[in-house]
Design a protein that fits this description.
By secondary structure, the protein is of the alpha/beta class. It is 37% helix and 21% strand. The N terminus is likely disordered.
């Protein structure tokens, strides 16, 4: 009797939806692309009314609301949501020079604020910090063997001790984790991890896989998780 395929622990990553309410189309779309790249689902609204509808109907994990909207201000959006019992975390976006009353923001129910122009790292850090404080959010931790990867904190631990990774190594690791037991070509990995706009070659992938093996395999010379597929690329086995 032929044995079936080996059973692996299923790795799932809950996709959290973030609602972006901003009348600046370019900024709104830029934030949307950034969120999608970081594993979130972006829901975009050009004004306060549309944003309020999405906030109630779509139940996002977090809301980014511009302070100055053409119809309903970000302050009013916060007030209406909290007044109707919606407890979704809210981060207010404000322009340089706008006077921000931190006490007022807390009183109307905002959880944090970010001043434009902001860096992508700062915005993502604020988002993750607010999501971590939010009750009831699913824990986004992937694990295999003796390794755990906290996606929200971008922290990798092995046998309880933190392992340091470069950004590229970490992105490659999470790509493998989210595609278990799949043949992945070097070109596919390059496009997904490094992006079309960069121009590394396939040796870049090989070098980074070697580093993952050195850091996470029991024996890097006889890998059990990050496997080479001859003339294809790689396969990750949890």
């Amino acid at each position: 009797m032929r044995a079936g395929p080996p059973a692996y622990a299923k790795i799932t990553v809950p996709m959290q939806t973030i609602l972006v309410i901003d009348d600046d189309e370019n900024l709104r779309d830029t934030i949307g692309v950034l969120l999608e790249r970081e594993g979130f689902r972006a829901l975009l609204a050009p004004d306060g009314k549309t944003g309020l509808d999405h906030a109630v109907l779509s139940k996002p994990a977090l809301i980014l609301a511009d302070l100055r909207l053409p119809d309903i201000s970000g302050v009013e959006v916060c007030k209406r949501l909290r007044g109707s019992g919606v407890q979704t975390p809210i981060i207010v976006l404000s322009a340089v020079g706008e006077e921000i009353d931190k006490v007022l923001l807390l009183e109307i129910g905002a959880d944090d604020y970010v001043v434009k122009p902001f860096g992508t790292r700062e915005l993502l850090a604020r988002i993750r910090a607010v999501l971590r404080r939010s009750p009831g959010e699913p824990e986004r931790i992937l694990s295999f063997a003796d390794t755990q990867v906290d996606l929200d904190r971008r922290v990798v631990t092995r046998k309880g001790s933190e392992v340091k990774f470069t950004p590229a190594e970490y992105n490659l690791l999470t790509f493998f984790l989210q595609n278990p037991d799949r043949p992945l070509s070097r070109d596919m990995i390059l496009n997904s991890v490094w992006g079309y706009e960069s121009f590394p070659n396939t040796r870049t992938v090989d070098a980074h896989v070697v580093r993952l093996r050195q850091k996470l395999e029991a024996d890097p010379n006889v890998p059990r998780h990050f496997l080479t597929l001859h003339k294809v690329g790689y396969r990750f086995l949890p």
